[in-house]
Write a structure and sequence with these properties.
Layout lengths: L8 H25 L3 H19 L5 H25 L11 H24 L5 H34 L5 H4 L2
Helix pairs in contact: 1-5, 2-3, 2-5, 4-5
Length: 170
C-alpha cells in the first residue's frame, strides 16, 4: 500500500535551484584547482627543461637511462606533493574525453616540438642545441597548459549538468 503526497511543482523547482547553487560552486572550485597551481606548473616545466636539455647533450645510453629514471622519480614526487596539497577532491574521479584529448594533444605538441627543434638545430653543437630544444618545448608547454586545462575542466561541469526534458526524450 503506497501512500502518495501531492507534489507542489513550484516548491520542487525552488528546492532544485537551492541544491544546484552549491553544485555550481563545487564545479567552480574544481575548475580553479584543475591547474594544480603555479608551483606545480612551473616545477613541471623546470623539470622538463632540465631533462630535455640534458638528453640533448648526447649522453651515453646509461646516462640517458639514469637521467630518465631521475626525471620520472622527481615527477612522481611532484605529483604526490601536488595531490596532498589539493584543496578539493571529487567523490569520483571523472576523466572525460576532453581530459584524454588534452593529454594526448600535449604529448603530440611537445614531442613534435622536440623533434622539429632537433631537426632545426642539427648543425649546432649539443651544448647549444639541447637548451634551445628544451626552451622551445617548455615554452609551448606553458602556452598550451592554461587554456587546455580550463577547457578540460569545463567538461566536468557540462557532464554533471542536469538532463533536460528534451534530452531525456520527454
Amino acid at each position: 500500500m503506497a501512500m502518495s503526497m501531492p507534489v507542489d511543482a513550484e516548491q520542487a523547482w525552488k528546492d532544485l535551484q537551492r541544491i544546484r547553487v552549491p553544485q555550481e560552486r563545487v564545479y567552480d572550485e574544481y575548475e580553479r584547482s584543475a591547474s594544480g597551481g603555479r608551483g606545480t606548473t612551473y616545477g613541471t616545466a623546470a623539470l622538463m627543461w632540465v631533462f630535455l636539455a640534458g638528453v640533448g647533450m648526447d649522453l651515453p645510453q646509461w646516462g640517458v637511462g639514469l637521467f630518465l629514471a631521475v626525471y620520472i622519480g622527481l615527477l612522481g614526487v611532484l605529483i604526490v606533493m601536488s595531490g596532498r596539497r589539493s584543496r578539493m577532491q571529487l567523490h569520483r574521479t571523472r576523466c572525460t574525453g576532453r581530459m584524454w584529448a588534452v593529454f594526448g594533444a600535449a604529448g603530440v605538441l611537445v614531442g613534435g616540438t622536440v623533434v622539429l627543434a632537433d631537426h632545426l638545430t642539427e648543425g649546432l653543437e649539443p651544448i647549444h642545441a639541447g637548451p634551445i630544444q628544451a626552451t622551445a618545448a617548455v615554452a609551448l608547454y606553458l602556452l598550451f597548459l592554461g587554456p587546455a586545462n580550463r577547457w578540460a575542466a569545463d567538461s566536468v561541469r557540462t557532464t554533471g549538468a542536469p538532463v533536460t526534458d528534451k534530452e531525456a526524450g520527454r
